[in-house]
Amino acid sequence: MKVLVVGSGGREHALAWKLSQSPRVDRVFVAPGNVGTFFDAENVSIDVLDFPAIIRFVKENHIGLVAVGPEQPLCAGIVDALQGEGIRVFGPSKAAAQLEGSKIFCKNALKLGCIPTAEFATFDNAQNALNYLKEREDRPVVVKADGLAAGKGVYVCQNRDEALQAVQEMALDKKFGAAGERLVIEERLDGEEASVLAITDGKTILTLPPAQDHKPAYDGDKGPNTGGMGAYCPAPVVTEAMLRWVEENILVRTVHVMNRLEAPFTGVLYAGLMIGRQGAKVLEFNTRFGDPECQPLLMRLKTDLLTIMEATLDRQLDKIGSLEWDPRPCVGVVMASEGYPGKSVYGHPIRGLEDVAGMKDVKVFHSGTRVNERAEVVNAGGRVLTVTALGESIALAKKNAYEAVRKIRWEGAWCRHDIADKAI
Ligand code: AMP
Ligand code: GLY
Protein backbone atom coordinates (compact mmCIF):
# COMPACT_ATOMS: atom_id res chain seq x y z
CA MET A 1 0.00 0.00 0.00
CA LYS A 2 1.05 3.60 -0.56
CA VAL A 3 0.55 6.02 2.30
CA LEU A 4 0.73 9.79 2.62
CA VAL A 5 1.78 11.61 5.79
CA VAL A 6 0.66 15.24 6.00
CA GLY A 7 3.05 17.65 7.76
CA SER A 8 6.72 18.63 7.90
CA GLY A 9 7.98 18.26 11.46
CA GLY A 10 9.83 15.72 13.58
CA ARG A 11 6.51 14.05 14.35
CA GLU A 12 5.81 13.53 10.66
CA HIS A 13 9.34 12.24 10.07
CA ALA A 14 8.77 9.71 12.85
CA LEU A 15 5.36 8.72 11.41
CA ALA A 16 6.83 8.27 7.92
CA TRP A 17 9.82 6.32 9.27
CA LYS A 18 7.58 4.01 11.28
CA LEU A 19 5.03 3.50 8.50
CA SER A 20 7.81 2.67 6.04
CA GLN A 21 8.79 -0.26 8.32
CA SER A 22 5.39 -1.86 7.80
CA PRO A 23 5.62 -5.01 5.67
CA ARG A 24 2.44 -3.91 3.92
CA VAL A 25 3.65 -0.43 2.96
CA ASP A 26 5.39 -0.04 -0.40
CA ARG A 27 5.89 3.71 -0.55
CA VAL A 28 5.51 6.56 1.92
CA PHE A 29 4.97 10.11 0.73
CA VAL A 30 5.15 13.18 2.95
CA ALA A 31 3.51 16.52 2.14
CA PRO A 32 5.51 18.73 2.29
CA GLY A 33 8.11 16.94 4.48
CA ASN A 34 11.69 17.94 5.29
CA VAL A 35 15.21 16.64 4.62
CA GLY A 36 14.68 13.70 6.98
CA THR A 37 11.55 12.55 5.19
CA PHE A 38 13.31 13.10 1.86
CA PHE A 39 15.77 10.39 2.86
CA ASP A 40 13.40 8.03 4.68
CA ALA A 41 10.36 8.53 2.40
CA GLU A 42 9.38 10.69 -0.61
CA ASN A 43 8.46 14.36 -0.37
CA VAL A 44 5.67 16.00 -2.34
CA SER A 45 5.55 19.76 -2.27
CA ILE A 46 1.96 20.34 -1.24
CA ASP A 47 0.95 22.62 1.62
CA VAL A 48 -0.88 20.96 4.54
CA LEU A 49 -3.86 23.28 4.03
CA ASP A 50 -4.17 22.81 0.26
CA PHE A 51 -6.89 20.14 0.47
CA PRO A 52 -7.75 20.09 -3.27
CA ALA A 53 -4.09 19.42 -4.15
CA ILE A 54 -3.84 16.71 -1.48
CA ILE A 55 -7.03 15.04 -2.79
CA ARG A 56 -5.69 15.18 -6.37
CA PHE A 57 -2.37 13.64 -5.31
CA VAL A 58 -4.08 10.87 -3.35
CA LYS A 59 -6.35 9.95 -6.26
CA GLU A 60 -3.67 10.11 -8.93
CA ASN A 61 -1.27 8.00 -6.90
CA HIS A 62 -3.77 5.53 -5.45
CA ILE A 63 -2.83 6.30 -1.84
CA GLY A 64 -4.43 3.76 0.48
CA LEU A 65 -4.19 5.75 3.69
CA VAL A 66 -3.48 9.34 4.73
CA ALA A 67 -2.10 10.11 8.21
CA VAL A 68 -2.39 13.73 9.33
CA GLY A 69 0.29 15.02 11.74
CA PRO A 70 -0.40 18.64 12.70
CA GLU A 71 -3.41 20.36 14.27
CA GLN A 72 -3.93 23.14 11.70
CA PRO A 73 -5.24 20.91 8.88
CA LEU A 74 -7.25 18.83 11.36
CA CYS A 75 -8.98 21.90 12.77
CA ALA A 76 -9.53 23.19 9.23
CA GLY A 77 -11.39 19.97 8.35
CA ILE A 78 -8.92 17.93 6.30
CA VAL A 79 -10.44 14.66 7.50
CA ASP A 80 -13.96 15.68 6.45
CA ALA A 81 -12.70 16.96 3.09
CA LEU A 82 -10.80 13.78 2.28
CA GLN A 83 -13.46 11.42 3.61
CA GLY A 84 -15.99 13.23 1.44
CA GLU A 85 -13.93 12.02 -1.52
CA GLY A 86 -13.87 8.44 -0.25
CA ILE A 87 -10.27 8.66 0.98
CA ARG A 88 -9.17 6.72 4.06
CA VAL A 89 -7.65 9.21 6.47
CA PHE A 90 -6.40 8.79 10.04
CA GLY A 91 -7.33 11.65 12.36
CA PRO A 92 -10.35 13.33 13.96
CA SER A 93 -13.08 15.16 12.07
CA LYS A 94 -13.25 18.95 12.20
CA ALA A 95 -15.96 18.71 14.87
CA ALA A 96 -13.87 16.38 17.03
CA ALA A 97 -10.68 18.43 16.53
CA GLN A 98 -12.41 21.29 18.35
CA LEU A 99 -11.21 19.56 21.47
CA GLU A 100 -7.84 21.11 20.58
CA GLY A 101 -8.94 23.97 18.32
CA SER A 102 -11.19 25.65 20.88
CA LYS A 103 -10.23 25.78 24.54
CA ILE A 104 -13.80 26.83 25.35
CA PHE A 105 -15.21 23.77 23.56
CA CYS A 106 -12.66 21.65 25.44
CA LYS A 107 -13.49 23.06 28.88
CA ASN A 108 -17.23 22.71 28.27
CA ALA A 109 -16.78 19.11 27.15
CA LEU A 110 -14.69 18.37 30.25
CA LYS A 111 -17.38 19.87 32.45
CA LEU A 112 -20.18 17.96 30.72
CA GLY A 113 -18.23 14.71 31.11
CA CYS A 114 -17.37 15.36 34.80
CA ILE A 115 -13.70 15.05 33.85
CA PRO A 116 -11.15 16.47 36.33
CA THR A 117 -9.78 19.84 35.19
CA ALA A 118 -9.05 23.31 36.59
CA GLU A 119 -12.03 25.50 37.60
CA PHE A 120 -12.67 27.97 34.83
CA ALA A 121 -14.75 30.77 33.34
CA THR A 122 -15.11 31.68 29.67
CA PHE A 123 -15.41 35.12 28.05
CA ASP A 124 -16.25 36.44 24.60
CA ASN A 125 -15.59 40.01 25.61
CA ALA A 126 -12.45 41.61 27.04
CA GLN A 127 -14.31 43.95 29.39
CA ASN A 128 -16.13 41.07 31.09
CA ALA A 129 -12.83 39.26 31.54
CA LEU A 130 -11.20 42.36 33.06
CA ASN A 131 -14.17 42.90 35.40
CA TYR A 132 -14.09 39.24 36.45
CA LEU A 133 -10.42 39.50 37.39
CA LYS A 134 -10.95 42.77 39.30
CA GLU A 135 -13.89 41.41 41.27
CA ARG A 136 -12.16 38.22 42.34
CA GLU A 137 -9.54 37.54 44.94
CA ASP A 138 -5.99 38.32 43.68
CA ARG A 139 -4.51 34.88 43.08
CA PRO A 140 -2.64 33.00 40.38
CA VAL A 141 -4.69 32.24 37.28
CA VAL A 142 -4.04 31.06 33.75
CA VAL A 143 -5.37 33.10 30.83
CA LYS A 144 -5.85 31.20 27.54
CA ALA A 145 -6.75 32.35 24.06
CA ASP A 146 -9.61 30.17 22.80
CA GLY A 147 -8.15 29.34 19.37
CA LEU A 148 -4.93 27.82 18.03
CA ALA A 149 -1.86 29.93 18.80
CA ALA A 150 1.01 27.47 18.22
CA GLY A 151 1.22 26.75 21.95
CA LYS A 152 1.86 30.42 22.76
CA GLY A 153 -1.67 31.54 23.67
CA VAL A 154 -1.43 30.48 27.32
CA TYR A 155 -0.21 32.85 30.05
CA VAL A 156 0.41 31.44 33.50
CA CYS A 157 -0.02 34.51 35.73
CA GLN A 158 1.32 34.99 39.26
CA ASN A 159 -1.18 37.69 40.18
CA ARG A 160 -4.04 39.91 39.05
CA ASP A 161 -1.84 42.49 37.32
CA GLU A 162 -0.23 39.87 35.11
CA ALA A 163 -3.65 38.43 34.31
CA LEU A 164 -5.03 41.86 33.38
CA GLN A 165 -2.01 42.35 31.13
CA ALA A 166 -2.62 38.95 29.50
CA VAL A 167 -6.25 39.84 28.73
CA GLN A 168 -5.07 43.17 27.32
CA GLU A 169 -2.57 41.46 24.96
CA MET A 170 -4.84 38.65 23.81
CA ALA A 171 -8.27 40.25 23.57
CA LEU A 172 -7.53 43.95 23.02
CA ASP A 173 -4.11 44.08 21.30
CA LYS A 174 -5.08 40.92 19.36
CA LYS A 175 -1.62 39.40 19.72
CA PHE A 176 -2.95 36.05 18.50
CA GLY A 177 -5.50 37.49 16.06
CA ALA A 178 -8.95 35.94 16.09
CA ALA A 179 -7.70 33.12 18.37
CA GLY A 180 -7.80 35.62 21.29
CA GLU A 181 -11.28 37.01 20.70
CA ARG A 182 -12.61 34.54 23.23
CA LEU A 183 -10.80 33.60 26.43
CA VAL A 184 -10.66 31.03 29.17
CA ILE A 185 -9.51 32.08 32.64
CA GLU A 186 -8.80 29.18 34.97
CA GLU A 187 -7.24 28.39 38.31
CA ARG A 188 -3.55 27.66 38.25
CA LEU A 189 -2.74 24.05 39.08
CA ASP A 190 0.48 22.89 40.71
CA GLY A 191 2.34 19.67 40.17
CA GLU A 192 4.26 17.88 37.45
CA GLU A 193 3.09 17.73 33.85
CA ALA A 194 2.80 14.54 31.82
CA SER A 195 1.30 13.50 28.50
CA VAL A 196 -0.92 10.47 28.16
CA LEU A 197 -1.74 9.68 24.55
CA ALA A 198 -4.24 7.12 23.36
CA ILE A 199 -5.44 5.85 20.02
CA THR A 200 -9.19 5.46 19.76
CA ASP A 201 -11.75 4.54 17.13
CA GLY A 202 -14.49 6.15 19.21
CA LYS A 203 -15.30 2.83 20.86
CA THR A 204 -12.07 1.18 22.02
CA ILE A 205 -9.16 3.05 23.61
CA LEU A 206 -5.54 1.91 23.34
CA THR A 207 -3.58 3.91 25.88
CA LEU A 208 0.09 4.47 25.03
CA PRO A 209 2.85 4.57 27.67
CA PRO A 210 3.04 7.97 29.38
CA ALA A 211 5.50 10.54 28.09
CA GLN A 212 6.83 13.87 29.29
CA ASP A 213 7.55 16.95 27.20
CA HIS A 214 9.73 19.92 28.21
CA LYS A 215 7.95 23.08 27.11
CA PRO A 216 10.08 25.87 28.61
CA ALA A 217 13.10 26.80 26.50
CA TYR A 218 15.91 26.53 29.04
CA ASP A 219 17.30 24.13 31.63
CA GLY A 220 15.38 23.87 34.89
CA ASP A 221 12.13 24.78 33.10
CA LYS A 222 13.19 28.42 32.78
CA GLY A 223 12.47 30.81 29.95
CA PRO A 224 9.68 31.22 27.44
CA ASN A 225 7.42 28.37 26.32
CA THR A 226 8.30 26.53 23.12
CA GLY A 227 6.70 23.82 21.01
CA GLY A 228 8.67 21.34 23.16
CA MET A 229 12.43 20.99 23.72
CA GLY A 230 12.58 17.25 24.34
CA ALA A 231 10.56 14.28 25.51
CA TYR A 232 11.00 10.86 26.97
CA CYS A 233 8.92 7.78 27.46
CA PRO A 234 7.85 6.10 29.67
CA ALA A 235 7.43 8.83 32.28
CA PRO A 236 7.50 7.27 35.77
CA VAL A 237 5.56 10.21 37.27
CA VAL A 238 2.53 8.43 35.81
CA THR A 239 2.54 5.13 37.68
CA GLU A 240 0.76 2.08 36.32
CA ALA A 241 -2.10 2.70 38.78
CA MET A 242 -2.30 6.37 37.76
CA LEU A 243 -2.37 5.39 34.09
CA ARG A 244 -5.36 3.10 34.68
CA TRP A 245 -7.04 5.89 36.63
CA VAL A 246 -6.42 8.34 33.79
CA GLU A 247 -7.80 5.86 31.29
CA GLU A 248 -11.02 5.35 33.25
CA ASN A 249 -11.64 8.84 34.53
CA ILE A 250 -10.28 10.94 31.68
CA LEU A 251 -9.94 9.04 28.41
CA VAL A 252 -13.08 6.88 28.59
CA ARG A 253 -15.16 9.82 29.75
CA THR A 254 -13.80 12.04 27.00
CA VAL A 255 -14.55 9.53 24.25
CA HIS A 256 -18.02 9.13 25.73
CA VAL A 257 -18.71 12.84 26.00
CA MET A 258 -17.57 13.40 22.41
CA ASN A 259 -20.10 10.78 21.29
CA ARG A 260 -22.78 12.61 23.28
CA LEU A 261 -21.76 15.86 21.59
CA GLU A 262 -22.20 14.15 18.22
CA ALA A 263 -18.52 14.68 17.48
CA PRO A 264 -17.24 11.11 17.82
CA PHE A 265 -13.49 11.10 18.30
CA THR A 266 -11.16 8.92 16.28
CA GLY A 267 -7.40 9.21 15.99
CA VAL A 268 -4.89 10.21 18.65
CA LEU A 269 -6.33 11.67 21.83
CA TYR A 270 -3.55 13.40 23.74
CA ALA A 271 -4.28 14.44 27.32
CA GLY A 272 -1.91 17.07 28.71
CA LEU A 273 -2.10 16.43 32.46
CA MET A 274 -1.05 18.10 35.68
CA ILE A 275 -0.24 15.46 38.26
CA GLY A 276 -0.62 17.07 41.67
CA ARG A 277 -1.49 16.14 45.22
CA GLN A 278 -5.14 15.69 44.26
CA GLY A 279 -4.35 13.33 41.36
CA ALA A 280 -4.38 14.08 37.64
CA LYS A 281 -6.28 16.92 36.00
CA VAL A 282 -6.55 17.81 32.32
CA LEU A 283 -4.66 20.95 31.25
CA GLU A 284 -5.49 20.55 27.59
CA PHE A 285 -6.26 18.06 24.88
CA ASN A 286 -4.42 17.71 21.61
CA THR A 287 -6.06 15.74 18.85
CA ARG A 288 -2.87 14.30 17.29
CA PHE A 289 0.52 12.98 18.31
CA GLY A 290 2.63 15.49 20.23
CA ASP A 291 5.85 16.79 18.75
CA PRO A 292 8.37 15.77 20.19
CA GLU A 293 6.53 13.07 22.23
CA CYS A 294 5.78 11.16 19.04
CA GLN A 295 9.45 10.57 18.34
CA PRO A 296 10.35 8.55 21.49
CA LEU A 297 6.93 6.86 21.46
CA LEU A 298 7.32 5.55 17.91
CA MET A 299 10.96 4.54 18.54
CA ARG A 300 9.54 2.15 21.15
CA LEU A 301 6.45 0.95 19.29
CA LYS A 302 6.82 -2.56 17.88
CA THR A 303 3.27 -3.18 16.65
CA ASP A 304 2.75 -2.29 12.99
CA LEU A 305 1.54 1.31 12.86
CA LEU A 306 -0.36 0.79 9.60
CA THR A 307 -2.36 -2.02 11.22
CA ILE A 308 -3.21 0.26 14.15
CA MET A 309 -4.29 3.09 11.85
CA GLU A 310 -6.38 0.85 9.63
CA ALA A 311 -8.07 -0.76 12.63
CA THR A 312 -8.92 2.73 13.86
CA LEU A 313 -10.59 3.62 10.57
CA ASP A 314 -12.48 0.32 10.54
CA ARG A 315 -13.56 0.68 14.21
CA GLN A 316 -11.79 -2.61 14.89
CA LEU A 317 -9.29 -1.49 17.54
CA ASP A 318 -10.84 -4.05 19.90
CA LYS A 319 -9.32 -6.73 17.63
CA ILE A 320 -5.71 -5.49 17.95
CA GLY A 321 -5.02 -6.88 21.43
CA SER A 322 -2.35 -5.02 23.34
CA LEU A 323 0.33 -2.97 21.67
CA GLU A 324 3.89 -4.23 21.78
CA TRP A 325 6.67 -1.95 23.01
CA ASP A 326 10.43 -2.04 23.21
CA PRO A 327 10.96 -2.36 26.99
CA ARG A 328 13.82 0.14 26.85
CA PRO A 329 13.07 3.78 27.66
CA CYS A 330 13.64 6.40 24.99
CA VAL A 331 14.77 10.03 25.20
CA GLY A 332 14.47 12.67 22.44
CA VAL A 333 16.47 15.91 22.66
CA VAL A 334 15.45 18.82 20.44
CA MET A 335 18.27 20.83 18.85
CA ALA A 336 17.11 24.35 18.02
CA SER A 337 18.27 27.37 16.03
CA GLU A 338 19.82 30.41 17.65
CA GLY A 339 17.06 32.76 18.80
CA TYR A 340 14.26 30.19 19.05
CA PRO A 341 11.46 30.59 20.23
CA GLY A 342 11.99 34.18 19.13
CA LYS A 343 13.24 35.18 15.70
CA SER A 344 15.76 32.56 14.60
CA VAL A 345 18.69 32.60 12.23
CA TYR A 346 18.54 30.07 9.38
CA GLY A 347 20.71 28.73 6.59
CA HIS A 348 23.70 27.35 8.51
CA PRO A 349 25.11 24.03 7.27
CA ILE A 350 24.52 21.17 9.72
CA ARG A 351 27.58 18.96 10.30
CA GLY A 352 27.88 15.52 11.82
CA LEU A 353 24.63 13.92 10.69
CA GLU A 354 26.53 11.15 8.92
CA ASP A 355 28.51 10.34 12.11
CA VAL A 356 25.28 9.82 13.99
CA ALA A 357 23.60 7.83 11.22
CA GLY A 358 25.72 4.78 12.13
CA MET A 359 24.95 4.89 15.86
CA LYS A 360 22.95 1.96 17.19
CA ASP A 361 19.58 2.72 18.79
CA VAL A 362 19.82 6.40 17.82
CA LYS A 363 17.61 8.13 15.28
CA VAL A 364 17.68 11.77 14.28
CA PHE A 365 14.26 13.07 13.29
CA HIS A 366 14.27 16.28 11.26
CA SER A 367 11.94 19.26 11.67
CA GLY A 368 13.21 22.58 10.29
CA THR A 369 15.76 21.43 7.73
CA ARG A 370 16.24 22.02 4.03
CA VAL A 371 18.93 21.58 1.39
CA ASN A 372 20.71 24.70 0.08
CA GLU A 373 22.15 25.47 -3.38
CA ARG A 374 25.38 23.68 -2.47
CA ALA A 375 23.44 20.53 -1.56
CA GLU A 376 24.19 21.01 2.15
CA VAL A 377 21.61 20.30 4.83
CA VAL A 378 20.91 23.60 6.61
CA ASN A 379 18.69 24.68 9.49
CA ALA A 380 15.40 26.18 8.29
CA GLY A 381 13.17 26.39 11.35
CA GLY A 382 13.21 27.07 15.10
CA ARG A 383 13.21 23.44 16.13
CA VAL A 384 15.61 21.65 13.79
CA LEU A 385 16.24 18.06 14.93
CA THR A 386 15.03 15.63 17.58
CA VAL A 387 17.95 13.40 18.47
CA THR A 388 16.28 10.31 19.86
CA ALA A 389 17.88 7.32 21.58
CA LEU A 390 16.95 4.11 23.36
CA GLY A 391 18.82 2.88 26.43
CA GLU A 392 18.61 0.18 29.08
CA SER A 393 17.48 2.81 31.57
CA ILE A 394 16.27 6.39 31.22
CA ALA A 395 19.69 7.59 32.35
CA LEU A 396 21.41 5.50 29.66
CA ALA A 397 18.93 6.60 27.00
CA LYS A 398 19.70 10.20 27.96
CA LYS A 399 23.44 9.50 27.79
CA ASN A 400 23.08 7.96 24.31
CA ALA A 401 20.97 10.85 23.06
CA TYR A 402 23.43 13.51 24.27
CA GLU A 403 26.37 11.55 22.89
CA ALA A 404 24.73 11.87 19.48
CA VAL A 405 23.84 15.53 20.08
CA ARG A 406 27.52 16.30 20.70
CA LYS A 407 28.43 15.00 17.24
CA ILE A 408 26.00 17.37 15.49
CA ARG A 409 26.75 21.08 15.10
CA TRP A 410 25.84 24.20 13.20
CA GLU A 411 26.33 27.84 13.99
CA GLY A 412 24.11 28.82 16.91
CA ALA A 413 22.77 25.30 17.58
CA TRP A 414 21.60 24.72 21.14
CA CYS A 415 19.53 22.36 23.23
CA ARG A 416 18.40 21.82 26.79
CA HIS A 417 20.81 19.69 28.81
CA ASP A 418 18.35 18.27 31.32
CA ILE A 419 15.87 16.34 29.20
CA ALA A 420 14.53 13.39 31.25
CA ASP A 421 16.23 14.53 34.47
CA LYS A 422 12.86 14.57 36.25
CA ALA A 423 12.79 10.80 35.82
CA ILE A 424 16.41 10.10 36.84
P1 AMP B 1 -2.02 24.31 27.32
O1 AMP B 1 -1.75 24.70 25.90
O2 AMP B 1 -3.41 24.54 27.77
O3 AMP B 1 -1.50 22.94 27.67
O4 AMP B 1 -1.08 25.24 28.18
C1 AMP B 1 0.31 25.31 27.91
C2 AMP B 1 1.08 25.18 29.20
O5 AMP B 1 0.62 26.15 30.14
C3 AMP B 1 0.89 23.85 29.88
O6 AMP B 1 1.76 22.88 29.37
C4 AMP B 1 1.19 24.21 31.31
O7 AMP B 1 2.60 24.30 31.53
C5 AMP B 1 0.63 25.60 31.44
N1 AMP B 1 -0.75 25.57 31.97
C6 AMP B 1 -1.90 25.51 31.28
N2 AMP B 1 -2.97 25.50 32.08
C7 AMP B 1 -2.48 25.54 33.34
C8 AMP B 1 -3.08 25.55 34.64
N3 AMP B 1 -4.40 25.53 34.82
N4 AMP B 1 -2.26 25.60 35.71
C9 AMP B 1 -0.91 25.63 35.57
N5 AMP B 1 -0.30 25.63 34.38
C10 AMP B 1 -1.06 25.58 33.27
N1 GLY C 1 4.60 18.70 22.53
C1 GLY C 1 3.39 19.39 22.69
C2 GLY C 1 2.56 19.44 21.50
O1 GLY C 1 2.79 18.77 20.51
O2 GLY C 1 1.59 20.17 21.52
Rg result: 21 Å
Mean pLDDT: 96
Spatial strand order of the main sheet: 3-2-1-4-5
Catalogue the ligands.
adenosine monophosphate, glycine
What fraction of residues sit in β-strands?
25-35%
- What is the distance, rounded to the nearest whole angstrom, between the alpha carbons of the first and last residues? 42 Å
Helix vs. strand class = alpha+beta
What quaternary form is this? Answer: single chain
Total helix count?
14
How many DSSP E strands?
22
Q: Given the C-alpha coordinates, what overall shape results?
A: globular
| Poorly predicted spans | none
What is the share of helical residues?
Answer: 25-40%
Largest sheet: 5 strands, parallel
Nutshell version of this structure?
The protein is an alpha+beta fold and 424 residues long. Helix content is 32%, strand content 25%.
